[in-house]
Specification:
Elements lengths: L2 H21 L6 H25 L5 H25 L4 H23 L8 H18 L2 H7 L4 H32 L8
Helix pairs in contact: 1-2, 1-3, 2-5, 3-4, 3-5, 4-7, 5-7, 6-7
């Protein structure tokens, strides 16, 4: 249990707290706490990979658990956003389907003794998904209304969030195609 793996586990521990603050409305700043928790969890994702590669601490557990923790973190947020009306359900379904398909395939490949690390496209996908989740978690609309800021601030933020969402969606689909194509030999049944 090296430092990168501990950071991965820490990211998993952050998830229920993130969801709690995202879904509760006790105070006007609960979404800000949720945003901070998500950013801290995202930082652990960046750190664990860099530390693992720099100090040669890459493990099979890390190759498997790191992308799984990323998926659980991002998907938890997206399911909450559907419930909160911030994310179209069809976008959530496409992203969830990709994550289940790739994770299931990874398990089949792992059963044969092969662990496949995340590709660069998958890392871009995860980055854009995390940016999307941060932007949707941060309740700028409420901040604008509470402080009587001009509405155009929220409108611009909303448009940027939609652009990030669609980029994340496209990268999700491309990364799935790339993943299955590069690992197509794993589809062969013995």
């Amino acid at each position: 249990m090296n430092l990168p793996n501990k950071l991965t586990i820490l990211r998993l521990i952050f998830i229920p707290f993130y969801v709690f603050f995202l879904m509760t409305d006790f105070f006007s700043f609960t979404s800000h706490i949720a945003t901070l928790l998500f950013i801290l969890a995202s930082i652990t994702d960046t750190l664990d990979g860099k530390i693992a590669r720099k100090y040669n601490l890459v493990t099979d557990f890390g190759k498997f658990a790191d992308p799984l923790a990323d998926k659980i973190l991002v998907v938890s947020g997206m399911i909450c956003f559907v419930a909160l009306g911030r994310l179209p359900v069809w976008v959530c379904i496409i992203i969830l389907a990709r994550e289940f398909a790739v994770s299931g395939f990874r398990l089949v490949i792992a059963a044969n003794g092969t662990v496949i690390a995340a590709s660069m496209i998958a890392k871009f996908k995860t980055t854009f998904q995390m940016i999307m989740v941060i932007m949707m978690t941060f309740d700028l609309q409420r901040l604008v209304m509470d402080h009587a800021w001009p509405v155009w601030i929220w409108n611009v933020y909303h448009i940027i969030t939609l652009v990030v969402m669609y980029v994340a969606l496209v990268l999700t689909i491309i990364s799935m195609i790339d993943y299955f194509y590069k690992n197509r030999k794993g589809f062969r049944i013995k």
